[in-house]
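To: structure desk
From: M.T.
Subject: fold request, one chain
Message: Could you run this one when you get a chance? Sequence is below, nothing fancy, just the single chain.
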Amino acid sequence: MSSFPAAAPVDAHGHAAILEILKQITPAVARMVSMTLKFSGKPALPAHETHQTRVDVVRFQISETPSTSSAWIKDAFSEGERSLWRFPSKPGSVPEYMRRAFRVKTFSLMSLQLLVVFAEMISIDHYRLWHNVLTEMREGHLIDVGQEVLFYSSGFCTLISIMVMFCVKDRYPVNYWLIALTTLLSGSFWGMTRAVVQTTMHFQIVGILCCSMTGGAVASMLVKEVHGPKLLVATLAPGWLLGATLNVLISRVFVQETDRVVLGSTGLSMLLLCILSMDAGRYLILCKPDDFMKIVVAMNSTLMVVVSIPFFVLSFCFIHTGEAVVDEDMENTLEVSQSMEQSTRVGQLAMPQTESRQEPSPPLRSASEPALTVFSL
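Reply: Done. Structure tokens follow.
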């Protein structure tokens, strides 16, 4: 039995009008209603006839079957592991996927920079450009003095470029132009090393560091469950092991280098990575976007330690002194802003209390108004 009462009789004109309206609303509703209409007696009469037709409304219940895609979307948003991976693990931190992208970008840029430095070193050493510049000078000891002057002048220009790059690390695109300039100067500085010392150790060191940075970029994309200081070991160690192994094979098979030079280059490359980790390791762990250039500056400063320790000491002191000054200024600015906010809050809290404590004073009576005296009997 239907719970709806029987509808009033509808003629053919009304039936056609109802169907036309329903067809305009939605075809699906029109089809469903046309299926549920039952006419008593004959079918729908033409428009010119006036025969009355009785319409009975029958209720149908359509079962809703959710589709597979909608169920998958609902499950994806209901489970926290699938929807919360883009959010920070704690307040004030960067999401993990952004940290991985930050490390990949940093290691890729440093590996590209070291690759350019390595290629420039090979070119300068092969063609001995410093010798071609100084061939027209006098023969004798002046040539050696000229080579040393040219070598240390290049090192001083590299030092100045690193300092300027640190000062403009937050100014785009000047900071990237400084990276390119520092890369060219570092390559020329390292390429002229054999003008002073006859060894190939610096080539091996740069080659191992380039493999280490490339391995760090690959490991940053793969390592997901390691955090903290262990992350530096997990990202830098595989590339360093690969670079050290290739260095031993190439040095012993193709170059015929002595064991002392091979062991020295392997140990010094590890020392440089340890210095880089202690100097810029916290930036690679926190992965704040503003600290990107600090890692690049630290790596360029670390490259100076093998060729010239005095230049490295100067650049290291300048960078960390500048960081200390900047951090102190930021702390002072934060303290001033916090004190101003606290004073503003205290003033806002004190204003309602002061207004509530003030009692309304009686209105002043004018001189012309007569005074009323009330006597109580």
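Reply (cont.): The chain is about 70% helix and 0% strand. Let me know if you need anything else for the meeting.
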